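for the writeup, i need someone to sanity check this before i put it in the appendix. the sequnce is what the collaborator sent (i think, or maybe the updated version? ugh). structure was predicted straight from it, no edits. if anything looks off just tell me and ill rerun, i have time this weekend
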Amino acid sequence: MTERERALSFDAVADQYDEARPGYPPALFDAIEELTGRPLSGSRVIDVGAGTGIATRLLRARGALVTAVEPGPEMAARLHRAAPGVPLVRGLGDALPLADGCADLVTYAQSWHWTDPAHSVPEALRVLRLGGALALWWNISDDDVPWIAAQDERIRQWAGDVHHGAHSASGRARNLPAAMERAERRITWTRRVPLDTHLANLGSHSVFRLHGEQAAADFLADERTRLLGHFPDGTVEEAYAVELTVSLRVPSALDERIGRAHYSSHDEFY
């Protein structure tokens, strides 16, 4: 299975993904504003690999003028139902169907690792205005918490060579050009959810899709038993660290080859 096919595998669990996946803490968006030097309110934002719109909706709540880009039809449909007023473009980060210089900020929430940086970096630079910024972030389960570290090790042993979620993916931010000014932040946060939600969150990750429904069900049943030993009341406190990288769009040779066109929203999905 190619990386693109693996990314599109989330379509089969779009509702589960939207209902169980964690959001992002307000401190993340505070950090983006600080590092870009611009408020989100009124900013033209392109949220690439938007999925069901978890980050899209939070950006919009901060006042951003968001356009979502998502290749998966079921994920896009879920996003449109949840946020019908958000312009939604079917497309990939490696070939954005958007005009040059149309964005103040391009965001990849939990999705940069599905792209080929040889294509997605030039595309991000193309759609960003001068002085704009590219923001990449991942929710990483906080392995400083013992029960999370133990669970992650069980998943790694069960999954074999297939990496689990974004634990190995956040390093892909290092593929950004050295010439791009960048800053990084790590923001820790927690959420309390029912055990069923925690298990549904795990099951929505691509590694479980790849191993088949029965194998995933067996693993998650074992996890339920183990976790009830830690959380007998059935409420799990998940701990996360959001790893954020923000890179600024500075003048480059690219600007000699492309014009600065105005934004035009097209190919919207309804």
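The CA atoms of residues 15 and 44 lie 27 Å apart. The two ends are 29 Å apart (CA to CA).
thx in advance!!
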